[in-house]
Amino acid sequence: MSSDHLTPPLRRWWTLAVLLLIQLTLLFNAMVITLSSPTVTSDLGFPVSRVQWLVTAFALSFGSLMLLGGRLGDIWGRRTSLYVGLGGFAVASALAGSAHDFSLLIVAVVLQGIFSALLAPATLATIFSMFSNQSDRAKAFAAYGIIAGSGTAFALFVGGALLEWTSWRWCFYVVAVLAALSIAGVADFVSDERSEVNRRVDHRGVLLASGGLFFVIGGLAHAVTSLFPLFASLGWSIHTTSRWLNFFTWGPLIIGLGLFVLAALVRERSKNPMFPIHTLKCRPLVGSLVALVIAGVATVPVVLLLANYLEENLSNSPVHVGFDFLPLVLTVVLSATFASARLLSVSGPRPLVPTGMILCTMGMVLFTRLTPFFDYWGHIFPGLILIGLGLGLILAPAFASATAALAKADAGVSAALITTTSWLGSVVGFAVLTTVAARVSLRTFDHSTSDLITAQKYATVHGLSVVFWWTAILFGVGAVSTFFLLASPAPADPAPASTTQISGQG
């Protein structure tokens, strides 16, 4: 399809559709790696202890290189970054699907992470650069928030169906096809745009910041060695809960934090800083990042833990689990479309994000009533509705507010900061919350007088209940903090890079 006959406004919306497809592809790929790990283990015949290596390999390459990917997007231009990222990502996905050796699969997944680190910030930066009108930008980020809020649940459904009806190889092949379709869309709709930034890269800042992310993610990944199945055996839970005291967990975390401090110090003396760190003095930006961190900490882990509960405790198939999450997907779409898209340009993010946090708090409280016995409509459905409505009010305004507070000249690296923040929230949340669930479950199991199967079921549900209480508290804290940090009026369009002065006023 040629875009030559399209008017500029219509072309922008088609471009947005292509960018949303890219974002959905990245989310789907991350879920595929998570879901397919146990199946890959048995198919390729390598030890179960290596299952976590796939997830860890992707997390390390993706998370640690995102800031560099954002800066390269500023230097190369959006279209070039999308071409390189999608081309490499498609090849890596096809390589993963055809891998008949564990080492080759690891290499392919690492390459996926590298090219994803280039794609994720370029996608968000392109959306930010395309829409200058406040009303159109609110609609664009509402659509982006729909993908961010419901993409995990949607990917869980599609990935589960592919695993049940085909094989893990077809999951990677589908990802490759989606990337190839995205390349065609970029060629037809995305125009080239480069930020007017210094083309030189702060190598020391990049190395230190990327190294800090690498060690922090590595330490967290070591703390939790597997994603699915979380409570397949009690021995796995014992193994998980002991790893926080291991040197290879807290050692990398300390090293990573130290590298972040050094990166901040080096930035003060650099002529070409990787990121304008002074923008963190902007209260609306800080409030938006807080909202994204909290949503990342609570949402993805809770979706995965709840999916595991439905599949393991209630013996539901992956496809059935995906259907169970459809209310979450639909309510995110409803909330982001009819609330965020229409109200954000008028009210600003301040009334929307705290309201979304309160709705998520209520949803998490409802999840604390879960039992080992199936009661979808009484215990699960109402919570999914509230959380879906809440996420639609949180994510779209937070993304829009965060990008509006940053200079257009640094759109790539600024988008990388935003996506890295959200990603780190998910990594931290999964590591901490699964540990809490495992510890509480183990303690409950030890004190149970019931038979083995009954004791394990009740212990699992009690562990999840405690996690849901903690996430409810976290959303409650988020409601208060974002109310005082975010701006009441609609986020203003950023000034040109040469004159942009970030204000600390809310």
Explain this structure to me?
- The chain is an all-alpha fold.
- The chain has a single domain, classed as MFS general substrate transporter like domains (Growth Hormone, Chain: A).
- It is 78% helix and 0% strand.
- Helix 15 runs antiparallel to helix 16.
- The longest helix has 37 residues.
- The protein is globular.
- The C terminus is likely disordered.
Percentage of residues in helical conformation: over 70%
Secondary-structure-based class equals mainly alpha
In the CATH hierarchy, what is the architecture at level 2?
A: Up-down Bundle
Could you give a short account of the major beta sheet? none
Q: SSE order, as H and E?
A: HHHHHHHHHHHHHHHH
CATH superfamily: MFS general substrate transporter like domains
Strand content: under 5%
Average predicted local confidence, pLDDT: 80
Intertermini distance: 45 Å
Number of strands: 0
Number of helices: 16
Q: State the shape.
A: globular
Using only C-alpha atoms, the radius of gyration works out to: 22 Å
CATH topology category name: Growth Hormone, Chain: A
User: Class in CATH?
Assistant: Mainly Alpha
Our count of domains comes out at: 1
- Give the uncertain stretches in residue-range form: 226-242, 490-506
Write a concise synopsis of the structure shown:
With 506 residues, the protein is mainly alpha-helical. The protein contains 16 helices and no strands. 56% of the residues are buried.
List the helices and strands and how they pair.
Layout: H1 8-44, H2 51-76, H3 78-98, H4 102-130, H5 134-165, H6 168-189, H7 203-223, H8 234-241, H9 247-269, H10 283-313, H11 318-324, H12 326-347, H13 352-367, H14 376-404, H15 411-446, H16 452-485
Helix pairs in contact: 1-2, 1-4, 1-5, 1-6, 2-3, 2-4, 2-7, 2-15, 3-4, 3-6, 4-15, 5-11, 5-12, 5-14, 7-9, 7-15, 8-15, 10-14, 10-15, 10-16, 12-14, 13-14, 13-16, 15-16
